[in-house]
Specification:
heterodimer; A: alpha+beta; seven-stranded mixed beta sheet; two-stranded antiparallel sheet; 9 strands; 43% helix; B: mainly beta; Immunoglobulin-like; ten-stranded mixed beta sheet; 1 helix
Chain lengths: 194, 144
């Protein structure tokens, strides 16, 4: 009798631990998937999986008040695309994801991107979703408040361009300091190695 | 005669430096404003500044009648991260060239209410810590 009671209690405890442990695990490990979450984009409300329509996507994170890194990068990508033949270029698209939802509306992002290339895609991400989205792609950003500045805050951010395949997997990284010729070379290699 | 010419040259140079007034201490060249896309609320002002004097010069402000808000900023690109910070001043050592350029110092121009016109010239002044003013012209330029 005692043995049976002990066994029942033990099994009950194990079952209870599994249930509690699973609950705690699921709370700590979000099932958030950037590919499944819908965002406001210049192509309508879409998730990333729906946006990855071409073979390769160049994904860049930036903000419109950035006077240097962002316009320089977008110019370089624009120039790199212009070095490709129409057939080569059809393999790629550029997605720009805003890091400053407080100041950069989707309309402003759209207007900004059209200056470089009307085919560039813009994504507006609400503040609450920025952290998990950027973390998922290994992108770092930080809002830094500045005293006595017209720019009440700036955003420190990663400058890498991520190259994704259609499944959303990062297959290449283009660094900011590389020249346009290096970008073109890497893009052409991707086409050859497909 | 052998000594006269070197002595005369030294004296002449000394007099010239004494007479180098504040407005000539800084020589500002190659000034450009970066043309940015519509919806971009700010842009950068770049230039080369030569401190021709034998004194350190501390730049504390850049002003313009055409742009109400201009600040001194510094950009840094380290470990694949770009950062930007406002500066209260930029110091130029004696007889040294300082570049305000990409990835480094620049003048940050705010409140761009209308697009910059390519090749248009805009007037600016640099002010130093001794309240000297140095006027210069910057050309709106596309950076590719």
């Amino acid at each position: 009798m005692n043995k049976k009671l002990f066994t029942d209690i033990f099994l009950g405890f194990v079952l209870f631990s599994i249930i509690v442990g699973s609950y705690i695990y699921s709370k700590n490990h979000s099932t958030y998937s950037p590919l499944q979450t819908s965002y406001s984009t210049t192509k309508g409300d879409k998730n990333f999986k729906e946006l990855l329509t071409t073979k390769y996507t160049l994904l860049y994170f930036g903000f419109l008040t950035c006077p240097e890194a962002c316009p320089t990068t977008l110019n370089k990508i624009k120039a790199s695309f212009s070095e490709l033949s129409p057939e080569e270029k059809s393999n790629f698209q550029l997605i720009f994801t805003g890091l400053d939802p407080e100041r950069d509306t989707l309309l402003k992002i759209k207007t900004y991107l059209e200056y470089f290339n009307p085919e560039f895609v813009g994504v507006f991400v609400p503040q609450t979703q920025l952290e998990p989205l950027t973390a998922n792609f290994g992108i770092v950003f930080k809002k830094v408040f500045q005293d006595n500045s017209n720019l009440s805050y700036t955003i420190d951010h990663s400058t890498d361009i991520l190259v994704l395949d259609q499944s959303g997997k990062i297959i290449q990284t283009l660094h900011h300091e590389l020249p346009k010729t290096a970008y073109v070379s890497e893009l052409k290699k991707l086409i050859i190695n497909k | 005669m052998k000594l006269f010419l070197p002595l005369f040259y030294s004296f002449f140079t000394f007099i010239i430096n004494l007479n180098l007034n504040a407005s000539e201490s800084l020589l500002i060249t190659n000034a450009k404003i970066r043309i940015v896309p519509p919806a971009a609320p700010a842009t950068a002002l770049y230039m080369e500044i030569k401190n021709q004097s034998k004194k350190e010069v501390k730049i504390i402000a850049i002003t313009s009648k055409e742009f109400k808000k201009i600040e001194l900023h510094e950009m840094k690109h380290e470990n694949n991260m770009m950062t930007m910070r406002k500066l209260d001043f930029i110091t130029i050592k004696p007889e040294t060239l300082l570049e305000l350029k990409r990835g480094s110092y620049h003048g940050m121009i705010f409140d761009l209410n209308s697009p910059l016109q390519k090749d248009k010239k805009y007037q600016f002044q640099i002010i130093d810590s001794e309240k000297n003013q140095y006027s210069f012209t910057a050309i709106a330029t596309e950076f590719n």
